Amino acid sequence: ENLDRAAARRQEREGGRQRSITDADAIREVDQFIQWLGEHMVSDVGLRMSQQDAGAYGQFEVSRRIVTIFRRAIDTGNLDRTMVHEMWHAMEAALPAADQAAVRQGHLRARDAWLGKNEWAQSFVSADRILDQITGDEAQAWLDAHPDRSGLPVVVDTQNGKPRVRMSWTGDTYRFRDRHEYFAETMADRYFN
Fold first, then answer.
1. Residue pLDDT tens, the chain, 193 long
2. Which of 31, 37, 78, 129 is the most exposed place for a label (fewest CB within 10 A)?
3. Pairing of strands 133-135, 162-167
């Protein structure tokens, strides 16, 4: 309710369409997902709504088993997709070891195929994941190797006077970040399609 009131005030100032955390269609979709999955599978998962603009739509805290939904998910109409994505993070830990290994292998195959078409991203690879950013000498080397970076999904700036290149994740690329995002995005795709 507080988020709705804050959104209404912001909408009055900005003149845009108000989004609500009580959007009946989004709530119905999330409820259907929980029923499909089985309530017992998520009975220990907490939910927190946040006004914070973290750049993300949501996050799952593994150790506390809490899903946080950020205002951005609501404002952009992505509440249902975000909730389902974050719930899949909660489910990943319940997978048997063999299935977790299969997820890891599936992620590496998909990531490597994507990297094969996006050579510019190789500098962001660290073991099994793609880093959110590179800084300092590594960033400068990347900038020197990619003087024409128009069209590449990166943000270039400085941090403490040193160059920084950040990934600008999209719905199409975020799944390659690590095996956890690959699992949550792939399973959300399968659920909604």
1. 444 555 455 556 555 554 565 677 878 888 899 999 899 999 999 999 888 876 789 999 999 999 999 988 888 888 899 999 999 999 998 899 999 999 999 999 999 999 999 999 999 999 999 999 999 999 999 999 999 999 999 999 999 999 999 999 988 899 999 999 999 999 999 999 8
2. 31
3. antiparallel
Q: Residue 132: name the closest of 182, 166, 108 by CA.
A: 166
Phi-psi region of 151 (alpha: psi -120 to 50; beta: other; left: phi over 0): left
* The two three-digit tokens of residue 5, written as one number: 């009131």
CA distances 73 to 8, 10, 54, 82, 173, Å, are: 16, 15, 11, 7, 18
Task: With beta carbons less than 8 A apart as the criterion, state whether 36 and 28 touch.
Answer: no
> Is the CA virtual torsion 175, 176, 182, 186 positive or negative?
positive
Query: Are the C-beta atoms of residues 4 and 20 closer than 8 Å to each other?
Result: yes
The two three-digit tokens of residue 56, written as one number: 């993300």
Q: Which amino acid is at 42?
A: V
* Furthest C-alpha separation in the chain: 53
Taking the C-alpha atoms of residue 20 and residue 69, their distance in angstroms, rounded to an integer, is 13
Four-residue CA torsion sign, 170, 113, 118, 133: positive
**159 by DSSP, 3-state: which?**
strand
